Amino acid sequence: MSDISSPPPPPGVQADPGAAPGVGPLTLNIQYTKDLSFEVPGAPEIFATLREQPRVDIQLDVQARPLQQDANVFEVSLQVRADAKAHLNNADQTCFIAELAYCGIFTVNVPPEQMEPVLLVECPRLLFPFARNILADVTRDGGFPPVLLAPIDFVALWQSRRGNAAAGGVVGHA
């Protein structure tokens, strides 16, 4: 269990005054790989014909769900998909597909109006370095150059998601 309550809370985040004494605004209880998939559909031929580094398309999503009724315990999932393609034999061919769902169980003690940014910005920010490392290792171990994810601006991702939800008439967090 990792308690990150000793440093000051993120900007604009205040601990819930009703929380138990000594409990910080955000505690990472456990983190784990929930799902990991790596496939090379064109193996072994792809290794003999690949002459260039593949183009990698990254998709990233963050989701949060409560684990207990009337409690501040949540599972936050950072989901990453990497699709690598290369131009071979006059066509784009898939080199590999990697999918990772990396999760953490968090106890969050903040006022309700601060819950969404904490769950969708601060929590994935803590999980990201570990997910980045797993993705790099699995792609390297799969016989390809490691996929090194660039740092993610989770604030911009959250704001973009909120803008899309508001435009669609839906408000709330995933």
From TrEMBL:
Q: Where in the cell is it found?
A: Cytoplasm
Q: Which SUPFAM superfamilies match?
A: SecB-like
Q: Name one GO molecular function term.
A: unfolded protein binding
Q: Which GO terms describe its cellular component?
A: cytoplasm
For the region Disordered, give the residue spans.
1-20
Q: Name one GO biological process term.
A: protein folding
Q: Which UniProt keywords apply?
A: Chaperone, Cytoplasm, Protein transport, Translocation, Transport
* UniProt main location, coarse: cytoplasm
Q: Which InterPro entries match?
A: SecB (IPR003708), SecB-like_sf (IPR035958)
Transport: is it a keyword of this entry? Answer: yes
Q: Where is the composition biased (Pro residues)?
A: 1-12
The protein's job, in short, is: One of the proteins required for the normal export of preproteins out of the cell cytoplasm. It is a molecular chaperone that binds to a subset of precursor proteins, maintaining them in a translocation-competent state. It also specifically binds to its receptor SecA.
Task: Report quaternary structure and partners.
Answer: Homotetramer, a dimer of dimers. One homotetramer interacts with 1 SecA dimer.
- Give the family per the record: Belongs to the SecB family.
Q: What is this protein called?
A: Protein-export protein SecB
What is the scientific name of the source organism? uncultured Acetobacteraceae bacterium
